[in-house]
Amino acid sequence: MKKYGLALIGGIAVVVAGWFLVDAKPVVAKTEQSTAVFDSQGKLKLPTGFREWVFVGAPLTPNSLNNGKANFPEYHNVYIEKKNVDAYLKTGTFPEGTVIIKELTRVLNPTFPDGSRSEPSGRGYFNGELNGIDASVKDTKRFAKTNGWGYFTFGHHPRPYQQTAEEAPATECASCHQSFVAKTDMTWIQFYPLLRDKPE
Hints:
The protein contains 4 helices and 9 strands.
């Protein structure tokens, strides 16, 4: 009888231990329903796997069309997780925890003064080398002072990128979003046909 009792107690201990392992929360918790992970200093960790998310668009403002001084002279290849794209299409707002990634690529080796080049498809602009990653995260508690979104850059330069990033000062990113796209959940929806032209 003692053997059975000990076996039962041992079995319960294993189950309880397993439950704790499965349910254990990381010391640095993820934002609710998000792939955003912050370290103990509040820095955002570089998201991974975002190229498997939904590609929503790629605005371009090349230097050659902006007197050589474009604020963002690269393509902005923008990715959002499918679940958050689906939520936006249904509600017109992004859910808590949404992460938007903007991966920058330079214009491919310009050969004309306007920054364009000729390819078999014709003269135009084409994606060149990777040149940086930015991220925005929706967390209405953490970023209450900037309309619920935080903005981060992991470097505006070729790879490798920084592995963590501090929240950008409001004057660098949030203020522009607040001024121009506050009505579309702080996001440049007008540049992304998939989101802009959503079914009514």
